[in-house]
Write a structure and sequence with these properties.
Length: about 190
C-alpha cells in the first residue's frame, strides 16, 4: 500500500470508531423509544441523525482523493466525526432522572441540538472543500443552498419551543437528506 493509502486507511478506521459510537448511541436510544414511547420530534431527529451518520460514513470515502494528508486535515475530519457523536449524546443522555420523559428532555436541549446541527451543515461544506474545489462544485449549485438553508432553519429552531414545528422541520430534514443521498451519493 502507498503512504497515501495507509494514511487514508488510518483516518477511516478512527472515523469508523467515532461514528460507530454515535450509531450505537442512536440505536440504543431507538430501543428506549420502543420501551417508553417518546416525543415525535425527538424521534424524527433521531432518525435524521441515524441517516446522516450512515451517509457521513459513506461520503467520507471521498477522502480517498486526498493525495497527501496533513495533521490539520486529519484533525478536522476527526473533529467532524466527534461533532456528530456529541449531537447523539444530546439526543440520548446517560441519565433521564431529572426529566419527566423524552419530550421534556428534548425541549430542554433543543437549543444546543440545533446549534450543533447548524454547525454540522457548515462543517460539511468545509469538509467538501477539503476534498477539492472540483468536488465541491461537482455537487452542483443546490449543495451550498441546501447546506446554508438547513443551517439557517436550525438557527431559527434554536429559539422555537414548539414540538410540532420541530417535528415538521425534522421530517423536512429527513426528506432532504434522503433526496440528497438518492441524487448525489447512491454510488461511490
Amino acid at each position: 500500500m502507498s503512504h497515501s493509502a495507509d494514511a487514508y486507511f488510518h483516518v477511516r478506521v478512527l472515523i469508523g470508531l467515532v461514528t460507530g459510537l454515535g450509531l450505537t448511541r442512536l440505536l440504543n436510544g431507538l430501543s428506549r423509544f420502543v420501551q417508553h414511547p417518546g416525543h415525535p420530534a425527538h424521534l424524527a431527529w433521531t432518525l435524521f441523525m441515524l441517516i446522516y451518520i450512515i451517509h457521513f460514513w459513506w461520503f467520507e470515502f471521498g477522502l480517498s482523493v486526498i493525495a497527501r494528508w496533513n495533521f490539520e486535515h486529519y484533525a478536522f475530519v476527526i473533529g467532524y466525526a466527534a461533532l456528530l457523536f456529541f449531537i447523539t449524546t444530546l439526543l440520548f443522555p446517560d441519565r433521564m432522572e431529572d426529566y419527566s420523559g423524552f419530550a421534556e428532555y428534548f425541549t430542554s436541549r433543543a437549543g444546543w441540538f440545533f446549534a450543533l446541527l447548524a454547525l454540522v451543515f457548515v462543517v460539511d461544506m468545509l469538509d467538501t472543500l477539503v476534498k477539492g474545489r472540483a468536488h465541491f462544485t461537482g455537487l452542483g449549485p443546490w449543495y451550498p443552498v441546501r447546506q446554508i438553508g438547513l443551517a439557517m432553519l436550525c438557527c431559527i429552531a434554536i429559539f422555537i419551543r414548539n414540538g410540532r414545528l420541530h417535528l415538521v422541520f425534522g421530517l423536512i430534514a429527513i426528506l432532504a437528506e434522503l433526496w440528497w443521498i438518492g441524487s448525489k451519493f447512491r454510488f461511490l
